Amino acid sequence: MAPLALYNSLETYLVIGAMLFGMGIYGMVTRRTLIGMLIAAELILAAASINFMAFNRFTAPDPATGQIFTLFIMAIAAAEAAIGLSITIAVYRHFKSIDAEDTAQLKG
Question: Which of 50, 25, 55 shows the shortest CA–CA distance to 40?
């Protein structure tokens, strides 16, 4: 199969998105540190962005719809990273560890 045929195929983008989503879910389940979970969540959001852009390119009548959704996902990912890192810093200052199991001792 020619490389150009792979580039012009919706299935190629969906497979890449599914692989990123699978790696993100695997990372969320197996990682014990808050930083690892945050990176895995970013992979999940990247997979959603790829799927929106792929469906926008191949099926949407309005070309801006998928791009606008992707921009919103990028903004949510940036906010999630900032809040997640600030929570991680606060947990590290209190427990001197970023292990997710240490947060079970938090009250409130």
Answer: 25
